[in-house]
Amino acid sequence: MTSARLSGSNASPSAHVKLLDDRRFRALLSDEDWGRLPLATWRRFSKRVADGDSVVYVAVVDEISFSDIGWWFAQAARLIGGPLPTGRDTGVPMIVTVTEDGGTGGQTWTRICARKRGFPQVIHSAKRFAGPTGLEEYVGFGVSMALRIAVEGQALTFRSAGYGLQLGRLWIPLPQWLTPGDLTVTHSDLGEGAFRFTLDVTHPRYGVLIHQYAVFREAVS
Fold first, then answer.
1. Nearest to residue 22, comparing CAs of 1, 3, 50?
2. Which superkingdom heads the taxonomic lineage of this protein's source (predicted)?
3. Which one of 55, 91, 94, 183 is separated from 85 by 20 to 30 angstroms, measured CA to CA?
């Protein structure tokens, strides 16, 4: 595994960024589960900036792997905005920007994955605190994914709980053959301001399609 090269240190937000108390993620967990999180994770998911402000996290990609089917599925997903990583490069920067969306009460996420050659891949998505699980992620062209969050050990996990297509006010569940399977994102605190991000996409028939691993810090302002 490539050693992570981290930008920044124990950074604090820029002076112009106003921090607010955020209970949106807290409300999706029991008191017992929330209490099992490390203090740094608790703070990270209780911090909310003002509408229109952003928090930026930086990392270097340590691991990225695809099965043959997973790589082709990631390429096909570019038709709906490219919500999955498509490159195989490690040792390249990844930048994640989380912006508060005052219009919806949710968050807009932008992930920039550099490549050793060519232009970086940019992944856009929007989190909404709504739906049957209380959390949804929209990835483009009306395609969304319901998410369930849980605490496993001392890690915060986000797991897919169904995919759908939003057509106006109508939400249509997608058949399993049109979906990649189970998506899991794990957020594990490493201390000293760093946390490990792991993305796994696992198909019930074909196994692990995509695996990505990186270590992040909040960017220095």
1. 50
2. Bacteria
3. 55
Distance from C-alpha of 138 to C-alpha of 14, rounded to nearest angstrom: 28
Query: How sure is the predictor about 20, in pLDDT bands with cuts at 50, 70 and 90?
Result: low
Query: Is residue 207 a contact partner of residue 45, using CB atoms and an 8 Å limit?
Result: no
Rounded Cα distance between 29 and 2, Å, is 34
What is the percentage of the chain residues whose pLDDT exceeds 90? 79
Count CB-CB contacts under 10 A for residue 169. 5
- 26: amino acid identity, one letter: R
Q: What is the CA radius of gyration of the chain?
A: 17
Q: What is the DSSP secondary-structure string of 63-106?
A: EEEE-HHHHHHHHHGGGGT--S------S-EEEEEEEEETTTTE
Task: Give the global pTM.
Answer: 0.88
Give kind and range of the element (H or E) at residue 111.
strand 106-113
